Amino acid sequence: MSLEKIRAMKGYQAITALTAYDCNIAKLLDEAGVDIIIVGDSLGNVVLGCETTREVTMQDMVRHTGAVRRGAVTSFIVADLPFQADASPEQALENSHLLIDAGADAVKIEGKPEIAKVIAANRIPVMGHVGLLPQTAEEFKVQGKDRVAAEKIVQEAKALEKAGCFAIVLEAIPASLASTITSLINIPTIGIGAGPYCDGQVLVINDVLGMYEGHTPKFAKRYAALNEDIRAAVKNYIKEVKTGQFPGDQHSYR
Ligand code: KIV
């Protein structure tokens, strides 16, 4: 998957994206054929057990981006610039280089078109993000519901396109607003809680696999129930060890 292919998919073919944070899951997503893997700073919530994404560091992102790169051969990898990693244009650029060196094909930034412009001008592909911005949000709720708020999000999306972003994530906005943005800009929109009228969709992999039991938003469709499988497998293991069923001959050396 390449930047050119992703750009060319707008209006022709739905773009598929999922988050991943480790090598094994990245390999499975890659083999299944997902177009984009986002090493999101949702890492903090769903893997590291943090309250917010604000606790995720550049060190965390570099380590996990490397792990995803080692698992994914074909998918296009986008790594999040974590909270404060883009506090100034210089910091954003330096940290973007670190993520690219760790294996990302592109970086993602929440809002901040003026910083996105510096990253893009330095030939690092950058994905924008508008609507609900978890790094700075005070409340996790649908954004852009009234006319003024909706217009602000439209302008932010246009500014990110002008800054040189190759695609934009639209998070938690009404489907009609996502549809307007998708038709107004010439780069792909990737929706998460933004309804069907986007050029692509992204979900957090732990939600998809049923591996996260914290707050789950309405849009997070669950396609498997792996936590239940894990609990059942571990209970079975405990039972077999306690009763002497495991290890048997088959799992012992002679
Ligand atoms: O951190 C994250 O998981 C995200 C998603 C919107 C992809 O930014």
Jot down its keywords:
254 residues; TIM Barrel; 42% helix; binds 3-methyl-2-oxobutanoic acid
Describe what this molecule looks like in 3D.
The chain is of the alpha/beta class. It has two domains: 221 residues, Alpha-Beta Barrel (TIM Barrel); 29 residues, no CATH class. 42% of the residues lie in helices and 14% in strands. Strands 1-2-3-4-5-6-7-8 form an eight-stranded parallel barrel, surrounded by seven helices. Strand 3, helix 5 and strand 4 form a beta-alpha-beta unit. The mean pLDDT is 97. The site of 3-methyl-2-oxobutanoic acid has 11 residues, from strand 6.
Helix content class: 40-55%
Average of pLDDT: 97
- Let me know the CATH homologous superfamily of the largest domain: Phosphoenolpyruvate-binding domains
**Residue runs with pLDDT of under 50 for 5 or more positions:** none
Order of helices and strands: HEHEHHEHEHEHEHEEHH
Per the principal axes of the C-alpha atoms, what is the gross shape? globular
Radius of gyration equals 20 Å
Strand percentage lies at 5-15%
**CATH topology name of the largest domain:** TIM Barrel
